[in-house]
Amino acid sequence: MGSVREMIAGARNFVGEVVAEGRKSVWPERQELIESTLVVIVSVVMLSVFVGVSDKLLVSLLGWLIPAG
């Protein structure tokens, strides 16, 4: 196991590399961010409606196939 100084040097090196990579990042413009957010929200709503409808249909089908009582 390395010494404490080596561990601190390694941590500093890691943080320096993270900062350098962060500076290379290209952040989206405001309009692109808004459009992407809307796409995600609409997709989540559509998927939740699909899952909800599928669930209701399957519950009804199973209730018809396996009567309670």
Structural class: mainly alpha
Biggest beta sheet summary: none
Q: N- to C-terminal separation?
A: 67 Å
Counted by DSSP, the helix tally is 2
Taken from the alpha-carbon principal axes, the silhouette is elongated
How large is the radius of gyration? 26 Å
Work out the number of β strands.
Answer: 0
- Contiguous low-pLDDT stretches (5 residues minimum) are none
Could you state the oligomeric state of the chains shown? single chain
Question: For the residues shown, what is the average pLDDT?
Answer: 93
- Strand percentage lies at under 5%
Helical fraction equals: over 70%
Describe the structure using short key phrases.
mainly alpha; 69 residues; single chain
Descriptive notes:
- This protein has 69 residues and is mostly helical.
- The protein has one domain (4-65).
- 83% of the residues lie in helices and 0% in strands.
- The protein has helices at 4-24, 30-65.
- The model has no long low-confidence stretch (mean pLDDT 93).
